[in-house]
Amino acid sequence: MYRVVVEWILGIEIPWKTRIGSGLVLYHGIGLVINDSAVIGSGVTLRHNVTIGTKVNDGPAPRIGDNVTFGCGATILGDIEVGEGAVIGAGAVVTKDVPPGAVAVGNPARIRIPAQEETDAHPAVAVGTGRNPT
User: What is the Cα–Cα distance from 134 to 100, expressed in whole angstroms?
Assistant: First the structure.
């Protein structure tokens, strides 16, 4: 009965042995697929059509840190780690590690570091302008 209602009607595939932390939020869960060997931290937000899986059958699956947010249609594949507080943009295809607090966008995903960290790392460059702020 579970498979009929959840997998066939709602289109949500979260195997019972998937390790998921507390506070998982599903917005419009239609088309959601999570590999059974994936590890998902606490406070993670998933939107519709998100896939968290492997590159090959029985291969290693992603490990997702706490408080990660996924945009709709995001795909995360392979033996990768998504750091705490990261944001995965809508439609992103992530096949490499995402550092904590970073933003991954595009296909293939490009990693963007938040502006605050950019200004701390390069104080002489105004973020977004490419020139000296003076």
Answer: 31
